[in-house]
Amino acid sequence: MIARSLVAALALAAVSFATSANAQDVAAGEKSFNKCRACHQVGETAKNTVGPVLNGLFGRKSGTIEGYNYTDANKNSGITWDDAVFAEYIKDPKAKIPGTKMAFAGIKKEDEIKDLTAFLKQYGADGKKK
Question: How far apart are CA 103 and CA 94, in angstroms?
Answer without folding.
Answer: 8
